[in-house]
Amino acid sequence: MYRVRTADGMIEASLRGKLKKGQRKRGQRSGDQVVIGDLVTVGAGSGGARVIESVRPRRTWLARRPSWSRVDRVVAANLDRLLVVVSVGDPPPSRFVIDRVLVMGESGGMGCQVVLNKVDLPGCSTVVAELTRAYRAAGYQVLPTSAVTGAGIEALRAVIAAGSSALAGPSGAGKSSLLNRVEAGLDLRTRPVGRRSRAGRHTTVSSRLIALSGGGQVADTPGFSDVGVGDVEAAALGGCFPEFRPFLGLCHFNDCTHIHEPGCAVAAAVASGHIRQERHSSYRTILEAL
Ligand SMILES: Nc1nc2c(ncn2[C@@H]2O[C@H](COP(=O)(O)OP(=O)(O)O)[C@@H](O)[C@H]2O)c(=O)[nH]1
Ligand SMILES: [Mg+2]
Ligand SMILES: [Zn+2]
């Protein structure tokens, strides 16, 4: 059953049988999947039941690759932005993980921002300053926050007050804690880092789009921590790095992979400091995995 928001309030609807065979197009519906954020039309079925009759093509999508699968699953559709949340300590941040999740958001057409959480932790100021500099240079807004002291929460609330957002990032980064801080009474479950058993991780099975009292909607989808990059073609990967974009198309070879080719404008931009070495390393690692 799906809960559908209509002009007359929330209703419950099931999926019409013939809808269940979706086309296999990147980011679009496949199998029997209708996900949070999908725009649907609902009609009357037999006995007063409501039935989802059609699903609009998706404007954006958020896909993840479950660790046990080779196929991506879209977990949310039509969201405006992806907030990539990492903690600046406990667990320590990984540049590669940030880049990987950013690629996931970029490839799904969402606007992305970086949230650096747990800035209350002692001794983190160097890391905060470094990450802030690096991701601003890449073209992203960077927001330092603490769910403990409340630092940056007002700014975070303002960011998500318009449109719809999802928070993604490693387990333990503080995504649920941040949302609880943004919206009193939300009461999402939070768990201490290191007390996470595999068995307990996927106990929530439903996803929902939460309407916030200050405006905006946030996706609450379980199991976001195992994010793997999928749903991006190797040739499109460079475009998922905003600071690469001015140089794409300027390489000597049309099919340049921006790794080893002579006359590569991206490599030249790395050499001249316009693109940071670490970001290019992440690009290379992700490309190899693809
Ligand atoms: N020191 C500190 N701890 C935090 C902060 N935010 C979350 N935590 C703690 O980090 C752990 C993981 O938080 P949780 O919200 O469950 O992370 P999630 O897996 O990303 O949803 C919990 O023990 C939280 O209390 C923060 O800003 N500062
Ligand atoms: Mg959580
Ligand atoms: Zn190139």
Strand portion: 15-25%
- CATH architecture assignment of the largest domain: 3-Layer(aba) Sandwich
Order of helices and strands: EEEEEEEHEHEHEHHEEHH
Across the major sheet, the strand order is 9-8-7-10-12-11
**Secondary-structure class:** alpha/beta
Q: What's the domain count? A: 3
Looking at CATH, the homologous superfamily of the largest domain is P-loop containing nucleotide triphosphate hydrolases
Contiguous runs where pLDDT drops below 50 for at least 5 residues: 199-204
| Cα-to-Cα separation, first versus last residue | 35 Å
Tally of separate helices: 7
CATH class of the largest domain: Alpha Beta
Which cofactor or ligand species appear? Answer: guanosine-5'-diphosphate, magnesium ion, zinc ion
How is the main sheet built? 6 strands, mixed
- Give the overall form: globular
Mean pLDDT, to the nearest integer, reads 88
What percentage of residues falls in helices of 4 or more residues?
Answer: 10-25%
CATH level 3 topology of the largest domain: Rossmann fold
Number of DSSP strand runs = 12
* CA gyration radius, whole angstroms: 20 Å
Explained architecture:
The protein is about 25% helix and about 20% strand. It has about 290 residues and is α/β, with parallel strands linked by helices. It folds into three domains: about 55 residues, no CATH class; about 170 residues, Rossmann fold; about 55 residues, Ribonucleotide Reductase Protein R1, domain 1. The strands form three sheets. The protein has a six-stranded mixed beta sheet with strand order 9-8-7-10-12-11, with helices on both faces. Strands 1-2-4-3 form a four-stranded mixed beta sheet, with no helix packed on it. Strand 3 and strand 4 form a beta hairpin. Helix 1 crosses helix 7. Zinc ion binds next to helix 6.
